[in-house]
User: Which sequence fits this backbone?
């Protein structure tokens, strides 16, 4: 291999001058990106808690709820965007709605599974102590389900941060914009920058959730 | 008083869990419901605090039909302890114990103060209060379970196989602890177990139940062991029920003999002479404070100047005539190499011995009285 060829190739992969010159731009894209990804997870979590609690309270609602969430999750995101574009146009909402639905589909399983995993003796003891069912759900079963919910939340958050890139295909400028532009101009550095930044944010939020999960549930930590 | 009046529970699938049960659990006493699995003992217990409602019949607590009370409020007046502890994993020990006072509206500070009292009452130290359930041993979890059940000072305590999941040594400790607490608190306790020994040890009254939810016999432990109502109870209480029954008779009635004794400094020659004069082949070796050391078999002495401590045979174990039962005395004779049980006082000083014949005589006398 000729040294010149290598230099050229290296230049294409990591154009440091371009990278350093665009940090403000990355930050701007990141803000939109994270706003969309995290708001979606928050909406998904809120709905999942409501629906998950309903499924736990009324067991007959459990199978249909799981069926609906499976269908939701199987729905291709591009089809969702295309469909929503005709209603809400190329806006944040168009992206947030399907992403929330995905997060919801993932998290509703975590919430129901977490609540169902609370040992029976804990539930019976709570009832026998004189808890009414709503208070038992909110102060015993839900808190005891937190480790499972956090585990689901980590998956949903990483997946949402990754999925938010697709928004750029319909003209909402998330970090996916770096893929679209890099592809159009055949500029590899921009594409790699996009991958690395998305992965970095995913790791950061995964780590934050891991830590806050540990802080929230000191009772679940096992002494090593 | 808790009263079952012709209570029947039939589940939707037709299973008869409890069949026409009538029973009275006296105030301040421990009533044990005992039986094999599927005999309806747990269902009966759960009907008291309305975890299960009867199909027909009435359960009254202090004269009041429980189905007329709001379930949650009723339950707050009854402590409940279950096998696995059922502690809330996300709450500290102290907040677990404070549960019912909090439900009854006590402030957090007041409920925790009460919880710390309970923690001490069940024999746990204060620092234990800040731990989470997963950091406790099985026995400690059960203690916390008992403390939580007692925290609101309920008149009634319902216990569903509370000590079944811990090892025998811890179980025995927890049983003694419960007896100690009961002597102090005089709760009306309904206790479910499948273990006859536990029933006999703890129960003031025992209700033996049979599969299909029948009450077969309801009586004191003594009478259940001495006069089982039918073949089921007889087989259920086991083949050694006679031996167990002896635990209800004090060893105090034994006529103790003075044993032939030696000290470690006694010469072999003297030992042979003492044995000859007493007409026995076994001598009890004592230390200077008259604590028993073991049995010396005279036939094994070979000449030497003094007794070899190493040649002593184990006592098996001793018994205390003031505290122990004839069961303990009989056990001590069986285990003794000399066939003689050694009685000691609280300081462990020998007060006398009883041989097989004397124990047999005492058993005859006791069973004649029963």
Assistant:
């Amino acid at each position: 291999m000729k040294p010149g060829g290598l230099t050229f190739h290296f230049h294409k992969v990591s154009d440091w001058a371009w990278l350093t010159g665009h940090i403000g731009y990355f930050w701007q894209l990141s803000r939109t990106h994270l706003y969309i990804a995290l708001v979606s997870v928050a909406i998904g979590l809120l709905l999942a808690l409501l629906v998950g609690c309903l499924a736990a309270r009324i067991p007959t609602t459990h199978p249909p709820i799981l069926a609906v969430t499976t269908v939701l999750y199987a729905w291709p995101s591009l089809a969702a965007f295309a469909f929503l574009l005709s209603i809400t146009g190329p806006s944040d909402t168009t992206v947030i709605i399907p992403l929330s639905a995905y997060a919801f589909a993932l998290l509703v399983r975590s919430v129901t599974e977490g609540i169902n995993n609370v040992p029976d003796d804990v539930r019976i003891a709570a009832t026998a102590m004189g808890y009414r069912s709503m208070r038992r759900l909110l102060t015993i079963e839900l808190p005891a389900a937190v480790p499972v919910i956090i585990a689901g939340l980590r998956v949903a958050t990483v997946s949402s941060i990754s999925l938010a890139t697709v928004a750029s295909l319909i003209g909402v400028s998330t970090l996916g914009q770096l893929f679209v532009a890099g592809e159009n101009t055949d500029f590899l550095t921009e594409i790699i920058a996009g991958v690395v930044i998305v992965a970095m944010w995913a790791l950061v939020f995964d780590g934050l959730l891991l830590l806050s999960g540990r802080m929230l549930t000191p009772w679940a930590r096992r002494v090593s | 008083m808790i009263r079952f009046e012709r209570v029947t529970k039939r589940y939707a699938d037709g299973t008869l869990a409890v069949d026409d049960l009538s029973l009275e659990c006296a105030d301040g006493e421990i009533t044990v419901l005992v039986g094999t699995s599927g005999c309806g003992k747990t269902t009966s217990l759960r009907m008291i605090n309305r975890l299960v409602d009867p199909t027909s019949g009435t359960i009254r607590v202090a004269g009041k039909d429980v189905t007329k009370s709001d379930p949650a409020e009723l339950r707050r007046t009854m402590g409940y302890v279950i096998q696995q502890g059922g502690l809330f994993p996300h709450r500290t020990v102290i907040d677990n114990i404070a549960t019912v006072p909090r439900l009854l509206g006590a402030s957090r500070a007041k409920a925790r103060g009460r919880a710390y009292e309970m923690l001490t009452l069940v024999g746990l130290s204060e620092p234990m209060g800040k731990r989470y359930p997963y950091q406790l041993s099985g026995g400690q979890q059960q203690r916390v379970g008992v403390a939580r059940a007692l925290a609101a000072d309920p008149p009634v305590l319902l216990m569903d196989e509370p000590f079944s999941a811990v090892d025998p040594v811890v179980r025995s400790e927890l049983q003694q602890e419960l007896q100690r607490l009961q002597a102090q608190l005089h709760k009306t306790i309904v206790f479910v177990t499948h273990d006859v020994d536990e029933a006999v040890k703890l129960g003031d009254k025992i209700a033996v139940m049979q599969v299909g939810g029948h009450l077969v016999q309801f009586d004191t432990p003594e009478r259940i062991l001495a006069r089982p109502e039918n073949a089921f109870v007889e087989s259920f209480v086991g083949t050694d029920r006679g031996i167990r029954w002896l635990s209800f008779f004090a060893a105090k009635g034994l006529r103790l003999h003075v044993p032939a004794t030696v000290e470690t400094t006694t010469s072999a020659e003297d030992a042979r002479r003492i044995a000859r004069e007493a007409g026995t082949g076994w001598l009890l070796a004592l230390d200077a404070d008259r604590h028993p050391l073991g049995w010396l078999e005279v036939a094994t002495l070979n000449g030497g100047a003094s007794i070899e401590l190493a040649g002593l045979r184990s006592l098996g174990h001793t018994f205390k005539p003031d505290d122990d039962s004839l069961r303990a005395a009989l056990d001590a004779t069986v285990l003794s190499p000399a066939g003689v049980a050694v009685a000691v006082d609280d300081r462990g000083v020998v007060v006398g011995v009883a041989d097989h014949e004397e124990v047999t005589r005492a058993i005859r006398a006791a069973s004649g009285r029963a």
